[in-house]
Amino acid sequence: MHNLSVQEHYQRIRIILIIVLVLNWGVALAKIVYGLLTRCASITADGFHSLSDGASNLIGLAGIHFACQPVDQDHPYGHRKYETFFSLGIAGLLFLVALGLIHGSIERLRNPVTPFIDIKSFLIMAVTMIINFLVMRYEEKNGRFLKSDILLSDALHTRSDIFISFSVIIALAVIKLGFPILDPIATIVIALFIAYSGYEIVKHSSRILCDTVAIEDSRKIVDVVMGIKGVKTCHKIRTRGRPDDIHVDLHVQVKRDMHMDEAHRISFAIEDALKKNIPEITDVVVHMEPRD
Question: Is residue 214 in some structural domain?
Answer without folding.
Answer: no
